């Protein structure tokens, strides 16, 4: 069994994989809608709605469970504040896509959401999850050494 932090980051990674799958599907349908005769807006709506709901759950979990750990590791650096801004930006872009989807498809907005989400997820997985995992492992190892070689 892993530590609580690796259990959390692997759960968040699984959620990221699902988010990327949905974004790929949306990009695919959006490009088909924009470039061919076939009209895919009806197919697009449920997938965009489902991405919106899934992202809300994911972001809530991240902010509630992961950000406090990140804050502990990063100290005073305002990384958490920047990530929250990105979360808000992602949520509001998806909301405006949902709002406009009844009438028309904004392909540029879909591309922007795709790009922003990929960059955000990659930053979390490659830098932030890794950082918290490594720091937590090091402090657990240090505690074990202290327990084996007590100072008094
Ligand atoms: Fe995030
Ligand atoms: Fe995330």
Describe the structure.
There is one protein chain. The protein is an all-alpha fold. It has a single domain, classed as nmb1532 protein domain like (Four Helix Bundle (Hemerythrin (Met), subunit A)), CATH 1.20.120.520. Helices cover 86% and strands 0% of the residues. It is built from four helices and no strands. The mean pLDDT is 90. Bound molecules: fe (ii) ion (2 copies). One fe (ii) ion (FE2) binds next to helix 1, helix 2 and helix 4.
Form type: elongated
| The CATH class | Mainly Alpha
- Terminal residue distance: 32 Å
Structural class: mainly alpha
Determine Rg (CA atoms, Å): 20 Å
Q: How many domains, as an integer?
A: 1
Series of secondary-structure elements, N-terminal to C-terminal: HHHH
Low-confidence stretches: none
Instruction: Let me know the number of strands.
Output: 0
Q: Count up the helices.
A: 4
CATH architecture: Up-down Bundle
CATH H-level superfamily title: nmb1532 protein domain like
Q: Helix coverage percent of residues? A: over 70%
Bound molecules: fe (ii) ion
Quick check: average pLDDT?
A: 90
